[in-house]
Amino acid sequence: ATTEPKFPATRLALQNFDMTYGVQFGDLWPSIRVSLLSEQKYGALVNNFGTWDHVIAELERLSARDFVNEAFSHWKLEPEKGQPVASAPAPVSWACSPNLQCFTFAKGDISCFPRARLGSLGVLDYYLMDAASLLPVLALGLQPGDTVLDLCAAPGGKTLALLQTGCCRNLAANDLSTSRTGRLQKVLHSYVPEDIRDESRVRVTSCDGRKWGELEGDTYDRVLVDVPCTTDRHSLHEEENNIFQRSRKKERQILPLLQVQLLAAGLLATKPGGYAVYSTCSLSHLQNEYVVQGTIELLANQYSIEVQVEDLTHFRKLFMDTFFFFPSCQVGELVIPNLMANFGPMYFCKLRRLT
Amino acid sequence: MAALGRQVIDWHRLMRLTWATIARQTSHLREQRMTVVSLLRPLTTASRGGSLKELSCVTSRKYMQEAECRTDLSQCLLEKPGTPVDRGALGLEAITTSLLDMGFSDAHIRELLSIQPRPTPQQLLDITSELILLGLNPEPVCVVLKKSPQLLKLPVKQMKKRSTYLRKLGLGEGKLKSVLYCCPEIFTMRQRDINDIVRVLREKCLFTVQQVTEILHRCPYVLREDPGELEYKFQYAYFRMGIKHLDVVKTEFLKYSITKIKQRHIYLERLGRYQTPDKKGQTQVLNPSLKDIFRVSEAEFLAKTACSSVEEFEVFKKLLAREEEEGPEGCTSDSEEGTSSGEDAGD
């Protein structure tokens, strides 16, 4: 007993959260806290490149339901006089990316999905992910033929979802670290047939995302900026690679700066008139709203580029049956974990580049 | 004062029982009669000498003396009959009379006589009088015997031996009563099993002799537990929750099931409302009292202590059960998205 036992990073993370989130969320914090410390829920993103009709039947047999489809059916019934308006074009600001099917268990149901299996077409039949991770992709509102950039793509769940929409004429998937793009490649190999992910359509790179504005300015119709963050849930459970390790204090402190730089680069790579979605899996408003507001200011001041925050109130209403949303974000939407629906945290904010 | 008055009433009942027993014994044990009666004399004199009111005012010292006397008496009465097996058939009427004398009502007697499997009348009488002598009231005796008719099959000798042992553990008159009331097995279970529990409390959990007595008295259910699980429960209290020995005893902690303990404690801990005290016994949050955690109904626990909803706690209990069963991994994804993006930013 000569050496002091190391104070684990997961404990440091919890202490940090108690200090900051206790203030930020007040009475809501205990219920978020217990959820973060308990087992999370998953969604099964159906692989449209596999034999999906068979998979859907299987998932329905488990009494899971496709929360995306369910949200849309509510939306179609809701407008004026309850008339179905399936053919009417959706208002652009909160249009959802199409063709995504993601199954979850109802609120309070803690059932698990069995492991994904290899289908007859040689790809896995579904991808298990935090269902809230699909919301940024849905909010990005992909249109057929879009040129899409995923600036921080690994480990690949959101990238896979982008491909599942069937809208990407071109997809650039980037991540700084090669080990992480390796994981991304593995996901693509397991889920996407070769012809879909060939070099001309899906490009995987390992560059510094902050330089993207200079590399490919005004290029993409849709840009997803899913930045590195304090990964709150992960930081409470895994010692390995934990950003709350004492040695990574500096890195943690400059995270908001890095996030601003990445979002700025993403917006610069967006075509004027195009859309970007900023997302994190942190609850911290320093990494969420403040980054969005800071970046908008930065682009206005330094580049004279006008960026507008899109109102996602309606979007939030669509998915309220599945997720718990924090009711008072200044900009964007935040899914807060709750034991009844232990998804998230997931912050996302949709931005339109006007000029 | 009230307690003392109650004792006095008990004592009067005991007197009646004594006379009943003697009346019964005189028929076949004539030669013992003189001894018994001579033993009884000082007691009866005391009884007749004072009214109930006066008796309830006796000093504790005097009461103590009387209690000792009473114990001697019961010893005497119990040892003397010797061979209870072949005392001949007792008529229903005789039993009824004896039971009435012990203070049982007609309804009680009907209940006692209807207990299945039906004991021999002698056995019924022997056991009931034994329980009465231990200080139980007729009502609890009926409850105990109805709940555990196996007690009626016990040889009186074994019962007596066990009560002596329990007294040695410090479970005197009043205490033994409450133990027997909620844990009648204490008379039927194997001596070795009781020893095992006592040994765990003494040697593994390091409770003092007095504390062990207090635990057996206040949480007799510990006797039903597996010794290993009891030890684990104590360790959970001591190491995980930071509860000291004295508080384990005082709060009757050991009577709660480990499932309930973990559910409520871990829930509070994850909510951020309970912290294990550090080496100096300090916490950063003010822990709720153990009473507010364990001794309240679930509804009250949720409303006042946890400040949470029934639905969330229900889900939590299911998740916790799965964690306990499968380890912390639960149903993890095989696609690594659980770690989401960016956890090793800056690599």
TrEMBL record, chain A:
The keyword Methyltransferase applies. The active site is at C281 (nucleophile). S-adenosyl-L-methionine binds at C152, A153, A154, P155, G156, G157, K158, D175, D208, D226. PROSITE patterns: SAM_MT_RSMB_NOP. GO terms for cellular component: mitochondrial large ribosomal subunit. It is found in: Mitochondrion. Residues 48-354 form the SAM-dependent MTase RsmB/NOP-type domain. One of its GO terms (biological process) is mitochondrial RNA catabolic process. Belongs to the class I-like SAM-binding methyltransferase superfamily. RsmB/NOP family. This is 5-cytosine rRNA methyltransferase NSUN4. It comes from Loxodonta africana.
TrEMBL record, chain B:
GO terms for molecular function: rRNA binding. Keywords: Mitochondrion, Repeat, RNA-binding, rRNA processing, Transit peptide. The keyword Mitochondrion applies. It comes from the Eukaryota. Residues 324-347 are annotated as: Disordered. Residues 329-347 have a biased composition (Low complexity). It is found in: Mitochondrion. The keyword Acyltransferase does not apply. InterPro entries: MTERF (IPR003690), MTERF_sf (IPR038538). GO terms for cellular component: cytosol; mitochondrion. One of its GO terms (biological process) is heart development. Its main location: mitochondrion. Heterodimer with NSUN4; this interaction may be required for NSUN4 recruitment to the mitochondrial large ribosomal subunit. Belongs to the mTERF family. This is Transcription termination factor 4, mitochondrial. It comes from Loxodonta africana (African elephant).
